[in-house]
Amino acid sequence: MTEIIPAILAKDITELREKIAQIAGVASFVQIDMCDGKFVDSFSWPMSPYDRSSAEAILDEEEGLPFWDSMDFEFDLMVIQAHKQFEFFVRLGAKRIIFHIEAEGDIQTFKEFLEGIDMYTRENVSIGVALNTTTSIEDIKPIISSVDFIQCMGINHIGHQGEPFDERVLGQISALRELYPELIISVDGAVDINTAPLLVEAGANRLVVGSALMHSYDVRATMRELESL
Q1: How many whole angstroms separate alpha carbon 84 and alpha carbon 65?
Q2: pLDDT averaged over every residue in the chain
Q3: CB neighbour list of residue 11: distance below 8 Å, 6 or more residues apart
Q4: Pick from 104, 174, 93, 96: nearest CA to 133
Q5: Who contacts 154 (Cβ-Cβ below 8 Å, separation ≥6)?
Q6: Among 38, 89, 122, 183, which residue's beta carbon has the most beta carbons within 10 A?
Q7: Residue 122 CB contacts under 8 Å (≥ 6 apart), including other chains
Q8: Distance (Å, rounded) from C-alpha 154 to C-alpha 164?
């Protein structure tokens, strides 16, 4: 069964709470998009300059992420060299962390980082790597054995929700599925009731849904409809 993961892009902790509340009790995992304003041209919590301090209470274990007791979180790190802040994101409460290969710079350095993650963390946090539609799947070959899943971007302009679907992702997914039959392939961007069947047919087994879900009239009904596809 294909896993449907709601995606949230929030400018501050207040908006994050409001958006997570909309999908509480509907999904077991939610993706939080984290944008640094450098790798992409948008900011979001906790990288936003408007609301950096709100993460401190979570880091100090005075509180957890909103609804932490009823769902798990994956962080989509649209952040330059996010691996240098890995401990920060782990302490915020991630169960899955997604790095963008284009943001990481030297692939050998990134490979060494992945191989150096301690066993305890690897047992508790799944590691994924995202790649844009314009990035060759050859680029992930040096690190494929060190990650738990790959996230393909279904849009060309990342860091924003509501962007148009980029059909190049279908060929990318098909090629990955042929090379790595057992690989978990997630897709993020422009996932809706029209594109979801195409993505699953191409070989995706996780679908990250942003605006199509968060802007729907009935989130629960939309989730059921997507899962049925």
Answers
A1: 22
A2: 94
A3: 43, 44, 45, 48, 50, 51
A4: 174
A5: 133, 165, 166, 169, 187, 188, 189, 190, 191, 195, 199
A6: 89
A7: none
A8: 8
pLDDT digit string (tens) for 169-211? Answer: 999 999 999 999 999 999 999 999 999 999 999 999 999 999 9
**Predicted TM-score (pTM) above 0.85:** yes
Tokens of 191: 């996932």
Contacts of residue 72, Cβ cutoff 8 Å, sequence gap at least 6: 28, 29, 30, 95, 96
Measured CA to CA, the distance from residue 22 to residue 127 in angstroms comes to 26
CA dihedral (115, 58, 63, 49) positive or negative? negative
Identify the CATH assignment for 3-228 out of 3.40.1280.10, 3.40.50.720, 1.10.472.10, 3.20.20.70.
3.20.20.70
